[in-house]
Design brief:
The longest helix is centred in the middle third of the chain and has 18 residues. Strands 5-4-1-2-3-6 form a six-stranded mixed β-sheet, with helices on both faces. It is built from seven helices and six strands; from the N terminus they run H-E-E-E-H-E-H-H-E-H-E-H-H. The protein has two domains: 138 residues, 2-Layer Sandwich (Nucleotidyltransferase, domain 5), CATH 3.30.420.10; 28 residues, no CATH class. It starts with a helix and ends with a helix. With 200 residues, the chain is an alpha/beta fold.
Length: 200
């Protein structure tokens, strides 16, 4: 009964989304694939870095998210790479298979696709990522547009406001509009209509 309510609600949301323009929206993975979006943020004049990640499955359901922050003078590029590295570790520790990691940092996806690793801190982090990925052909790192990475971005922005690290399995209410907008491309008026549909 509960599952049918959720399915019905999602179908109503999708029917609303079809009438909206959404050129840059998050796309759900195929059945059997998990998507993990990752992003990073900087605070306090770059003296604090934070990252955020969220795992979602082919049914578009939020599995769980994680955020963390640390005091460091690392660059935002390095912080983005640390976020990806931690996301890979989380996927491994949870026994996940077939995971697509999505980042809006093209420098990371480019560095992972080449054999020429930079001789700096960023290169060291890329090497660590490669070391974890080398035997996991079912783990893929993809570059996406920033517009389709809003949920991970906002999780990273909220990292400094939460305990460190912070793992959550229930979507914070403030993230509902972001998730619906990212998945379906819903504008604010359509989000209000979607809420009315869910309450029917």
């Amino acid at each position: 009964m509960f599952d049918s309510v959720i399915i019905n609600s999602m179908q109503k949301a999708k029917s609303l989304a079809h009438s909206a323009e959404h050129p840059h929206k998050w796309s759900k993975p195929l059945v059997g694939i998990i998507k993990c979006n990752v992003d990073a943020a900087s605070f306090n004049n770059d003296s604090i870095k934070g990252y955020g990640m969220c795992f979602r499955d082919s049914s578009e359901l939020f599995m769980f998210g994680k955020s963390d922050y640390y005091y460091s003078s690392t660059t935002i590029l390095e912080a983005e790479t640390i976020g990806l590295l931690e996301a890979i570790k989380v996927a491994l520790s949870n026994g996940m298979h077939v995971v697509w990691f999505e980042t809006d940092c093209k420098a990371i996806s480019d560095a992972l696709a080449t054999t020429n690793i930079p001789q700096n801190e960023f290169g060291d982090l890329i090497f660590q990522c490669k070391s974890l990925l080398i035997n996991r052909t079912d783990f893929v790192v993809l570059h996406i547009r920033r517009q389709t990475n809003k949920v991970a971005h906002n999780i990273s922005r909220a990292s400094f406001s939460n305990s460190s690290p912070h793992i959550f399995y229930i979507v914070p209410t403030t993230f509902y509009p972001l998730i619906l907008n990212e998945i379906y491309g819903l504008t604010l008026p359509l989000l209000k209509k979607k809420r009315e549909y869910l309450l029917c």
